[in-house]
Structure formats: structure tokens, C-alpha cells
Write a structure and sequence with these properties.
alpha/beta, seven-stranded mixed sheet, four-stranded mixed sheet, 15 helices, about 15% strand, binds pyridoxal-5'-phosphate, EC 2.6.1.17, Acetylornithine/succinyldiaminopimelate transaminase, EC 2.6.1.11, transferase, aminotransferase
């Protein structure tokens, strides 16, 4: 414990310079951030405290899809902040009403619940699934089926549903009636179904788990299984949504509609924002008083998300994403072909791509991320074996070429190491 600072030192507390070392001193050690501290960003460029520039192919983990400090998004936020910023859900507001109309107009959904993050969206979707069965008097229908290697957030319910036991360790007792089956294995899914299943939740492309797309036949099969067994099909599109895959939502490319879908990350381009979308029938799970949040759907988040969707649905925008995605995928394939001893394969969908490390590089994604940083390129890991790329959707052909050249440099250095 440290003593509270005397009042006369307050100016120092607020205004003295900070550095990366302050993280280790004052923040809970839940993260191990990079050695540099970004201070400014624009588009895909990020600058640190020393003025060094990085090319950002991580987009804040598939969040800043329109690039950093997108002028129209900044403008929408500032305008709304100066008009009416927060009200609580005791009142509704114009931005959120317009946003709900847009989201339901653009998707399968009839109704929306707004929240502040991906985990909260999934928590809401899972609560909805159980509560819907309960509302119908179907009280034995409680089981949630999910996939191994999946990721659905960090609340106790969502880590329990997520398919990575390490995130659940030590937080028990955890919620019951959760079953895990291998991803892309329809027989395993079928074996897990029955009258006790409230919902099957799945990411169309597993993001954190290694950038693994679902097979079309898998999602089609899950749709049929859920219909057959009276369970809800929930798509977690927190990472794949809002244009990331070259389609507004990934399931639209697959031609399979869920009963419930969660979206967050890119929906706010960095402003905390999440939503649960549902059909009219599924939305009956959440009625007055059953669920809520202080900030969810506040005017600021509403105005920002509305502007984000305006940009992403602009004619030609998603075609452009698919063109850049093809360029990136081809470049990564060439890289894999040139470094068979280091790289096993590349996979993904749209501008969410994974580079699967092979041979002696397996398990070394963190070292690749660090080495890319040192070369001036920001990328992500997706598990120990996969380097993940998720650039802003507005990346140019030249920026894709620059990223590929930097990755090639990293691969060459790793080959020598
Ligand atoms: C990031 C992510 C989440 C969690 O979102 P938070 O905003 O971090 O709570 C959930 N599901 C998927 C698929 C994600 O990628």
C-alpha cells in the first residue's frame, strides 16, 4: 500500500511525464505491453514517444477498421459529445434509434440490444438463450454448446463457454451446462445436440483461436441441427463483423443466418461498443427488466457506430476490402512458398489472415510479433503458432506491399536465427 499524495504534489501527479516503466509500477499485470508507448496515430500509421513510425496491421485487434482517427468518425463523436453525450436507458436517444434501424435493415435481425464490448454482447446472447427457454417453460433447456479453441470474452460466463481452458483456470465455480465440441466437426456437433440444448455458439472464423474459417457445410449443418433440436444458433461476429471479411458480416458470405449474432470491436472503431442482434422470436428471451447496462447504446456510441456503418456500406467499400484481401492473401502465399522451413500455411477470410508457423518456428508467434515490431510493423499473435494480420479495411495497395516486404524481412531474419 502507498500513502495518498499530499495535495501540493498533485500537479506532479497529473502532469509529470510517463513512460512504459509506469505500467509495471501502477497497472495490474494482466498485460505485457510492447516496450514503446504509442502517442499519435492516423490511418495505418502509429508513432511512439520517440517519434518512431509503425505500420499498423493489427488495427487494435480488428477494431480500428476505418484507420486511426478517421475524420468522419472523430467528427461524429465530437458533434454528439457537444450535443448530448449520456442519458442512461431511462431514456432512449436519436443516434441509437437510427443505429438500430440501420443494423436491423442490413441484417437478418429484427431487434438489437446494445452494450459496450464483445464479452458483454456474448454474455447477453447467452443469457438470452437460457432465458428464452425459461420464458417458454422449457426449463430443462439450459445447455450451451461451443467449440474448442473458440474465444467469446473474459467474463466468467464467456470464459466458461470459450474453448480455451487456460482462460477459465482458477475462476471456479464456473457456470454449469456448457459443452465443448471440436470446431468444424459436424458429427461431434450432432452428438452434442438434444432437447436440453439452449444454444450453439460459434465464430464463423475463429479469431483468437488461430484464424480458422468454418467450412460452409459446417455452418449449414449447424443451422439444420439447431432447427431440428429447437436450439438457437448464435454467431459470434465480434471479430469478423463490420466488413472485416470483405462482407458486412461473415455469415452473409456463407449464406447461413443465425438466430442471434453478436458484434463489437470494429462497430465503434475504437469507441467501446457492442450489440446483440436477434430475430423477433429469439429476442423474446430478453424482456423488460431481464437485462441491462448503464452505458449500452448511449448517444456517443450510437453516433460513432452509425458513422462507421455509413462508411463500411458506402458503395464500393467492401469490394475494395476484397481486392486488398486478395493482394494480401497472394503475398502471404508467396511468402509461405519461399520459406517452407518456417511457414506451414496461410489461411483466413478477407482482411483477417493468419500465417501458420511451422518447423522450429512452431510456438514462436510472440517472437515474430516482437521482431515485426522492431522492423516497424504491428501484427498480432493468434495462439502460439499463428501470426495474425488484421489491417484497417482502408489499407492501400502500397501499404499491403509495405507490410509484405517487412514480413519478408522478418522471415529472413528468423531463417538466419
Ligand atoms: C475480442 C473478441 C471477444 C471479446 O470482446 P471484448 O470486447 O474484448 O470483450 C469475443 N469474441 C470474439 C470472437 C472476439 O474476437
Amino acid at each position: 500500500m502507498t500513502a495518498a499524495a499530499p495535495l501540493e504534489t498533485l500537479a506532479g501527479l497529473f502532469d509529470a511525464p510517463v513512460s512504459r516503466a509506469d505500467f509495471d509500477r501502477h497497472l495490474m499485470a494482466t498485460y505485457a505491453p510492447a516496450a514503446f508507448v504509442p502517442v499519435r496515430a492516423s490511418g495505418l500509421d502509429v508513432w511512439d514517444q520517440d517519434g518512431r513510425r509503425y505500420l499498423d496491421f493489427s488495427a487494435g485487434i480488428a477494431v480500428t477498421s476505418l484507420g486511426h482517427c478517421h475524420p468522419a468518425v472523430t467528427q461524429a463523436l465530437a458533434q454528439q459529445a457537444g450535443q448530448i453525450g449520456h442519458l442512461s436507458n431511462v431514456y432512449t436517444n436519436e443516434p441509437v434509434l437510427r443505429l438500430a434501424r440501420v443494423l436491423t435493415g442490413l441484417t437478418f435481425a429484427d431487434r438489437v440490444f446494445f452494450c459496450n464490448s464483445g464479452a458483454e454482447a456474448n454474455e447477453g446472447a447467452l443469457k438470452l438463450a437460457r432465458r428464452l427457454a425459461y420464458n417458454r417453460g422449457d426449463t430443462q433447456r439450459q445447455t450451451i454448446v461451443s467449440c474448442t479453441q473458440s474465444f467469446h470474452g473474459r467474463t466468467v460466463f464467456t470464459v466458461s463457454v470459450g474453448g480455451q481452458p487456460k482462460y477459465m483456470e482458477g475462476f471456479g465455480p464456473t457456470p454449469q451446462a456448457i459443452v465443448h465440441v471440436p470446431f468444424n466437426d459436424l458429427d461431434a456437433a450432432a452428438a452434442a445436440m438434444g432437447p436440453h440444448v439452449a444454444a450453439f455458439i460459434v465464430e464463423p472464423v475463429q479469431g483468437e483461436g488461430g484464424v480458422t474459417p468454418a467450412h460452409k457445410s459446417y455452418l449449414e449443418g449447424l443451422r439444420a441441427l439447431c432447427d431440428q433440436h429447437g436450439a438457437l444458433l448464435i454467431f459470434d461476429e465480434v471479430q469478423t463483423g463490420v466488413g472485416r471479411t470483405g462482407h458486412l458480416y461473415a455469415h452473409q458470405a456463407y449464406g447461413v443466418s443465425p438466430d442471434v449474432m453478436t458484434t463489437a470491436k470494429a462497430l465503434g472503431n475504437g469507441f467501446p461498443m457492442g450489440a446483440v442482434l436477434a430475430t423477433e422470436a429469439a429476442a423474446a428471451g430478453l424482456t423488460v427488466g431481464t437485462h441491462g447496462t448503464t452505458y449500452g447504446g448511449n448517444p456517443l456510441a450510437g453516433a460513432v457506430a452509425l458513422q462507421v456503418l455509413r462508411e463500411v456500406t458506402h458503395p464500393g467499400f467492401l469490394e475494395q476490402v476484397r481486392e486488398r484481401a486478395d493482394q494480401l492473401a497472394q503475398g502471404l502465399e508467396a511468402l509461405v512458398a519461399d520459406h517452407p522451413a518456417l511457414l506451414a500455411s496461410t489461411r483466413g477470410m478477407g482482411l483477417l489472415r493468419g500465417l501458420v508457423l511451422g518447423g522450429a518456428q512452431a510456438g514462436k508467434s510472440a517472437a515474430w510479433v516482437k521482431q515485426a515490431q522492431d522492423a516497424g510493423l504491428l501484427v498480432l499473435a493468434a495462439g502460439p503458432d499463428v501470426v495474425r494480420l488484421a489491417p484497417a479495411l482502408v489499407c492501400t495497395a502500397a501499404q499491403v506491399d509495405e507490410a509484405l516486404a517487412l514480413l519478408r524481412q522478418v522471415a529472413q531474419a528468423r531463417a538466419r536465427a
